[in-house]
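Suppose a colleague, Dr. K., hands you the sequence of a protein chain of 78 amino acids and asks what its three-dimensional shape might be. Before reaching for any lab equipment, you can write down a predicted structure in token form. Begin with the sequence itself:
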Amino acid sequence: PQMATIINTPATMPNEYLNFPKHTPRTCNIRLGKNDSSFGFEVINGENDIGAYIQEVFPNTPASNTPLRKCDRIIEID
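The predicted structure, expressed as tokens, is then:
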């Protein structure tokens, strides 16, 4: 079809996503070590500036050692 948009997605769901029940809130405790300069994730605003979501979790960072993952919605920060 000429009007279709091609979206590149994985052929199957990545294994790291299979272990998380859909829509179940999780607590992610992220602590900075002495040599860490950031938590290791990027946040974006939701549609119409409603909500905040994880844009990216960077490898080899404090956040990458937690259940935090891309597209998670942030509910609370303490």
